Structures
1.
Amino acid sequence: MRRYLWARIVTVIGITCSPVAGLAIDVNSTVTALRLANEITGGLMPTSDPLFAQMVASVAAGNVQAAALIAANSPYFASYMARRLALQMQSPALSTGGVTDSDATAFLIAHFVGAPGVKPSISTIWSDNSTYVLNIGGTNVHAASLTATQLNTRPGLTNAVDWMASLVALPGQTVSTVSGKTVTTGVTLPAANVGGYVTLSDRSGDSSFAQYGLTAGTNLRMIEGIWEISTGLQLLDMASEQAVAADAPRFIPETNSNFFHGQGQTACIACHGGGMASVNHGYSTVADIFDYNPTTAPTAGLVYNAAPATATMKSLGSDPTKRTATLTCNLAATPTPVCNPDSAGVDSQQKWDLNLVWGQTGVLQKMGWRGPATGQGLNALGAAIGQAAIVYQFLTVRVINEVCPMGSFTQSQVNSIAALADPMASPPGSDDVRTIVAAVASQPSCL
């Protein structure tokens, strides 16, 4: 019976045992290599590819991690897992449902697997001032313009895009800008306001992170999304009622009975003043200068507002007709404006200071924070986030969920694997997600 099962496995994967002595298939090594290839490349790697033979040889030599790394370094990984991880990162839900390829996903794939002349880099995901397109027959094409045939990842489809070799890095990021009712397209975004992949969108309705974070509302979703996706922490994980009213946005009503003391719930100030949405924790860097209109021309898509006026300042609330009242915050007015008179408001210099609350409550320690805790602008904030140890630890957890969800990993193991990719660890890690993938896939609990 066992001989029959092994024969069936060999037949299914398309390998024939040679009758010549010394050339018989190593069934155990082949099956292990096949499992690795399926988990890491989603079954895209055919057993006829020379890379698969290299994987079998590495397993036979006792180096399973090397075999896993061969799969992770292949174009199949870029088309499958790297692309899947990138699609997930367009919202804190980390779901691919309803998400399509965009400039943001192309950017992330490039940072996971590299591009011609560009090394992989987890640490610069939230700060790299670049745009990534694909070279299709000598023409640069945005990811959102690829055809269904080019995006099809079925094994053997010759017209599918090579998400490694075809990626092209272009310096800078371009957006639309608005001044009054005049919209200008193709304007270079100032480097200080570049947020890596989160500020990339070349059209409306592209399901990019920009669409998720900047559509309507007060843009709270953008800064909260950056923190949640990068760290894996949730709103209440980072909240603190030690904040003062000055730390909360101006449109949060201080006179509300739940502002300082929640009634059966966490007080409003804990999140709006002490958590992700605090004006000191990055919210003020994006509240007024970005907008995303998914449908209405001529300002459809991601828009950069270089000179925000009161009516466009989302830091003053969702309703543009009430922003002037929120700004002046005259509590004697009739009707009384909904506002926070003690708020420091949005700093035109886009300053942020993570020490003011998080340094005191242990949140920075929980994140393994190693970058600057103070700075100016979204780009500097993104660069600092990319240096936190939690970024690599959470990415490791995500890879485990993709490659080996039934495996058994202690927090110590997660930290050890994360350190292999953490460039600030000692010794410095690779800054490459494929290092994490290979280490996870080769763990004994996954074999």
2.
Amino acid sequence: MQCVMVSRTGGPDVLCVEERQAPVPAAGQVLVDVRVCGVNFIDIYEREGQYPVPVPFIPGSEGAGVVAAVESGPSDVAVGDRVAWANVPGGGYASQVVLPAERVVPVPDEVDDETAVALMLQGLTAHYLCFSSYAVQPGDHILVHAAAGGVGALLTQMVRLRGGHVIATTSTSAKAELAREAGAEHVIDYTRRDVAAEVRRLTGGRGVAAVYDGVGRSTFEASLDSLRVRGTLVLYGAASGPVPPLDPQVLNSKGSLYLTRPTLIHHIADRAELLERACTVFGLATDGSLEVHIGGRYPLTAARQAHEDLASRRTSGKLLLLPG
């Protein structure tokens, strides 16, 4: 099989395309012929060594393809099935991958492979953020950072479906337009405006019920300062770097705030919950309630370019690698 290997941590140049022996599934695993791989910030963190992974390794925790072999597992997974997966450690940047059978999700006929991948890690993340981490209520004002990104655009749409009002942040006029198309009522250019001051102005001085922040260091202070009394900051990523240590007394002084740092794996650890969330998200896409934006397609051999583009924030929507 063809795959992308990381033999040492570092920059995008450590991503090397190689030919390797095809993997063989063990008990409880499935072998999948990969059609589409997702590219995510976690791939960058692992490649750089921020999230330690023993080298050498094949990056990629998300994709879609066709089951080629099954060595026991859930009764709803069979050879020939179209499946998708997310948050499965490593191996995805390849033409074939072995996965735990209980972590793959059947893909409905109405959902194509690219859409399935775009709806897995990012769609499931958006779902748990606004349904579980802070359950958006009708009428809530919500701040969504990086609203033109893969998670941000889906999250904006889901917040609107739950009756919330979205204030978005973006860095360019083109991304601002994408955020508006996703349903944002107001868009703040964070490179030119004081985000917290703008949020206060737009909410009549009150602040927002929740902030969904996947950016981290560069937005953290503004996120805290944008919240209403007893508001919730959901910090789900660190695209700009990790946030500094925080004295919990700050949450008191700023209005009895709540701060949570969730991750997807804890919201899909049980197969029943994984299938329920995936079914909901696929259903929203099928009935037209949720629109997916593909920001870039790259051959597997161009994984380095995909990483560079994602890290530079030159892209919007979902980035995909296409094996074969």
